[in-house]
Amino acid sequence: MKFIISGGGTGGHIFPAVAIANELRRRQPDAEILFVGANGRMEMTRVPEAGYQIVGLDISGLQRRLTPQNLLFPIKVMRAVRKAGKLLESFRPDAVVGVGGYASAPVLLAATSRGIPALIQEQNSYAGLVNKLLARRVDKICVAYEGMSRFFPAEKLVLTGNPVRTEIATGDRAAALAFFGLDASRPVLLVIGGSLGARTLNQATAAALPRLQAAGVQLLWQTGKLYYPQAQEQAAPFGAAGLYALEFVQRMDLAYAAADVVISRAGALSVSELCLTGKPSILVPSPNVAEDHQTKNALALVKHDAALLVKDTEAATRLYDEALALLRNPARQQQLNAHVRQLAHPEATSTIVDELLKLAGKTP
Q: Taking all residues of the chain, what is their mean pLDDT, rounded to a whole number?
């Protein structure tokens, strides 16, 4: 069998796509899987690192203001659809998956115009523009949140949750503390700003380093590549106290296992990981995303008393007051843990692949 998985742009699109591919490969070891991404975006390096072939399209997003790039946008789309069509005709997939992001639109347009079964995987609680536009053309739409019929045809919806690597929740705490060189007798705070880092979280964390040291808190601070040199310099004087800046965390299973409390952006993948790991968290939604969808992701947890929310504009003044208060309150941590675990979908990847194989004519 042959499958094309299209989309990307951020880790929130790429890692679910890779999780789907891994499950397909587990079920169908001889299946051929091809990714299609946007040239210049992070999927062009992350996907090959995961062991899959990827083809790039020259496509970018529509700017939300009048720019010269917008005048060229229709031409870029037509060229990308044409290239995607040629790719489909040569590869001849049994089914196509779109995970959101620029590159999924041309591939899904080309696939549905040729009668190739197509599935969308929408990660967020507020649907992306590409997925909303293509919803009526595709066969199935796998979603992570309830109430998505306000964006999509209800008859096509399957509530699956987001594809998350299940091993993310299997880290051993003792091994995790040893891996990061942390003290088992002191609390651990994990700060993650997404695959590209987050300026607001980094600035608030840098300012809070003396407070964390005084409180005896240990810190794993994932900064992102752009912010890492400065953060490394800021954290260096506090290394002996167990306060560490990390450019990127490869072993997220161990980072979650070590953490007592997590501060995080509210991207769909991060929220799904927090549900699966059951970690008490403080979510700081990014304001720099379409339709403010991270706030909507965060509120989906907050309304179930499964996470705390601090606005990006309040991070400098409130974030570490909330974090230190939560670190000092084990009972509240346990309460958040119990509530957030109820929102997890550990079988999400398997369920999505079930739907994909049905579309491809191979009943799982």
A: 92
- Say whether 113 counts as a known binding-site residue: no
* Cβ 239 vs Cβ 263: under 8 Å: no
Establish whether 12 is an annotated binding residue. Answer: yes
Are residues 23 and 76 located together in one domain of the fold? yes
pTM of the model: 0.84
> Is 105 one of the annotated binding-site residues?
no
Both 91 and 176 in a single domain? no
Split at pLDDT 50, 70, 90, the class of 364 is very low
Residue 329, annotated as binding a ligand: no
- Model confidence pLDDT, tens digit, residues 209-256: 999 999 999 999 999 988 999 999 999 999 999 999 999 898 999 999
270 is in an annotated binding site: yes
Same domain, 296 and 265: yes
Q: Is 269 annotated as a binding residue?
A: yes
Domain that holds residue 39: 2-162+346-359
Q: Where does 152-298 show beta strands of DSSP type E?
A: 157-159, 188-192, 218-222, 243-246, 261-264, 281-283
Q: Which residues pair with 219 in a beta bridge?
A: 189, 243
Could you tell me if residue 271 is inside a domain?
A: yes
